[in-house]
Write a structure and sequence with these properties.
The chain crosses the membrane at residues 246-265, 271-290, 302-323. This protein has 328 residues and is mainly α. The protein folds into 3 domains: 8-104, 434 Repressor (Amino-terminal Domain) (Orthogonal Bundle), CATH 1.10.260; 112-231, Helix Hairpins; 246-327. 77% of the residues lie in helices and 0% in strands.
């Protein structure tokens, strides 16, 4: 890179001074990795299918990224560096992210904790499945060995019975006895091993069932945090929705118009007044919808109360103004 050319990381704004230490440490770590990528922010973000504003917030410490972002981001940095990320480096990145979430987003931290536990549970499940397969294979091998020894022992007994019909020597009888005892001992040892392996297989089956239940429970818990995932950095939906300026302006003008109409109907029937008041629901709901589009962190009930109060105040003020003098 030429000496007079800025590095991509130099284009970022300085980190805010009021960042929490854990968030600052993560942001500095991300900036170091981004410097290794050596690409301008916008082309890099677009190439990955991420919003540039989203990536900028992560690098500036304004938002804590999810692991779905960190994993490919760290992979890109390692690829440019020419060395894969070690297990220790990945673990450090994970810890930095979890600590930043812990101090800045409690629900996000709980979500990442669930993800970590689910990853561990999946590893345990795979290990339990491997042990079960191994136990089943060894169990079957020992059963086959018992059957082979049983066949040999029975064949030896059959041959000996046939030999007994002839005048067998005492030496042959001793050899038969030795061979038969050896086969019988081996068969008994194999049967004992089969019993042990049956217990091992049952234990492995129980471990696998336990791991399956644990994974299912964690996956069910994770499904409850889908809304939280959007709040802490869902790459597909974190871009802030920009509401045209004309829309909020129309929302505030409409109650003024309704207040004027209400004054005109002041001497008319009660029905017309009620219809006019019912029209106030239009700006209330539009204002509430705008707050939702802007992803306000207020609770839905608070957003609705805010929209209703604002609309009502504008309406009351407009009914008190001498608008007739302006018109006549």
């Amino acid at each position: 890179m030429p000496a007079n050319q800025k590095r991509p990381v130099d284009e970022l704004e300085p980190l805010p001074g009021d960042l929490l230490p854990e968030v600052r440490e993560l942001a500095e770590f991300l900036r170091e990795r981004f410097a290794e990528i050596k690409r301008p922010l916008k082309p890099y973000a677009h190439g990955r299918g991420w919003g540039p504003d989203t990536v900028s917030r992560y690098l500036n410490g304004k938002s804590v990224p999810t692991w779905d972002f960190l994993r490919p981001f760290l992979h890109d940095a390692a690829l440019r560096r020419g060395r894969p990320m070690s297990a220790d480096q990945m673990e450090r990145a994970r810890e930095l992210q979890k600590e930043a979430l812990r101090v800045s987003n409690e629900l996000g931290y709980e979500l990442e904790e669930l993800r970590s536990r689910l990853d561990e549970a999946k590893v345990e499940k795979e290990e339990a499945e491997r042990r079960l397969r191994h136990a089943l294979a060894r169990h079957q091998q020992q059963i086959d060995a018992v059957n082979r020894v049983e066949v040999k022992r029975r064949a030896l007994e059959s041959r000996w019975r046939q030999r007994e019909l002839t005048a067998s020597s005492g030496e042959e009888a001793k050899q038969y006895t030795r061979d038969h005892e050896l086969l019988l001992q081996r068969q008994q040892a194999l049967e004992a091993e089969v019993e042990r392996l049956e217990a091992e297989r049952e234990t492995a089956e129980l471990e696998k069932e336990k791991a399956d239940r644990k994974c299912l429970a964690l996956e069910a818990a994770l499904s409850k945090y889908k809304a939280v995932e959007v709040e802490i950095g869902d790459l597909g939906s974190q871009e802030k929705t920009v509401v045209p300026t004309a829309v909020p302006a129309a929302v505030y003008i409409f109650p003024i118009y309704l207040g004027f109409i209400y004054r005109l109907f002041s001497g008319s029937s009660l029905f017309l007044k009620i219809c006019t008041l019912a029209g106030l629901m239009i700006p209330v709901w539009v204002s509430y919808g705008i707050k939702r589009l802007e992803r306000s962190r207020l609770a839905p009930a608070v957003r609705l109360a805010y929209a209703a109060a604002t609309t009502l105040i504008i309406f009351i003020v407009s009914t008190a103004l001498p608008l007739e003098r302006w018109i006549w």
